[in-house]
Input
Amino acid sequence: MTEHLHGNMSSEDFRRAGHAMIDWIADYLDRDVARYPVRSQVEPGWLRPQLPASAPESGESWEAIWTDFETKILPGVTHWQSPHFYAYFPANVSYPAILGELLSAGLGVNGMLWATSPAATELETHVLDWLVDAMDLPPHFKGGGVIQDTASSASLCALLCAREQVTGYVGVRDGTGGGAPLRAYVSEHAHSSIEKAAMILGIGSSNVIAIPGDETHAMRPGALRKAIEQDLRQGLRPCFVCATIGTTSSLAMDPVDAIGKVCREHDLWLHVDAAMAGTALICPEFRAMADGLSYADSYCFNPHKWMFTNFDCDAFYVCDPSRLIRAMSIMPEYLKTADADGVINYRDWHIPLGRRFRALKLWFVLRSFGIEGIRARIREHVALAREFASWIDADDRFERCAPCDLNLVCFRMVGSDDENRRLMSSLNDAGQMYLTHTILDGRFVLRLCIGQTTTTRQHVQQAWAWIQGATGGLAD
Ligand code: PLP
Output
């Protein structure tokens, strides 16, 4: 048998290094991840001086490459899979999803068209349909699912659809130069990706209108209606509303039902962004937060945040794929295939042409955990967050700053913003845990989000002890 070298690696070398790497990953996730500071402690500019100025002329041994990974790269890694990672929103992983990534890399498939790998397309449609049932999403999303890289891309596609719907598909042909400004509406706490999408799509960030929130930081539908009516009176062109199920700052729940009714009255595209919180819909008891989702023209959530599916994997649903395809499709000769009719060609459903076989990892997760297995972990995370919130409530050195409906606790030490900033820095600098912050009602607030695959009650108790311990000596 001829041995094909890939770079400096034979298939034997690959087997050896690959088996060792799987062992390394299992040890890392089981045990070693807890040994590193959660947030990398290196200073900016730490890595590059340690690397050669130019790429090697001759191939190097795997041993040399791996040694450099361990000594030079690993110290600059922030350990998102640490059980003490409570920052931002999680990007949790699992063994079946990691194997899905590996297999996708091994197959090296580009599923841009049905014909370029039929199973990649059909599995994707199928697992996204499974999720419609498992999460009790509106049935009109069946057959309308597509995996995007991120929620940002999904929201951009949704806003494009809205723009084209209101301009009669003139924008994609002639550009967006003419006509009265288009307007998009979001809660003041919506994710910045909507504003970025408006910048990219020629709508302009000044035409994204931030609707004020109520005392729970959720969008006020009355204020939305007023803003739309005012814009209409001024001859502007409302086209899009994004409701968020679980805002990034505080996991506030915009009232989708009331917002949906306003969208219906004015024939506006309703996109619902449930990037992190959407996973909780797998549990019937959390589904009230999605009441009114049947009004949505599009919906997205990220299995790569809280559903044990490695980054990147956003599940994006449209109720009428033809509107998405009409806004996205171009057909150069070199991409025409004989079977174009009657199959899904996902290249028309998102921005890039090429696409990885991401459905594999989602399929592996759903089959390996089972819906019950995912529900059990989500319930555990929510219970832990609620318990942590109860500890905050019972300690008069702290105050809670938002409701804790799911797995995010927003809190602060009673004291100044500077004291709270110092509290967060001291915890993060110590490397034992990692928290991030937001601003709510003009005040600096700490966010503790529980969504790691391996976080247990013991970890959360330990985190609480560290937080309490760090409050001493912080007074201004
Ligand atoms: N929407 C919400 C509500 C988010 O919380 C986030 C990120 O945390 C995003 C969108 C952007 O996510 P992505 O990184 O998938 O674009």
Observations:
- The first strand starts at residue 145 and ends at 148.
- Residues 398 and 414 are 5 Å apart (CA to CA).
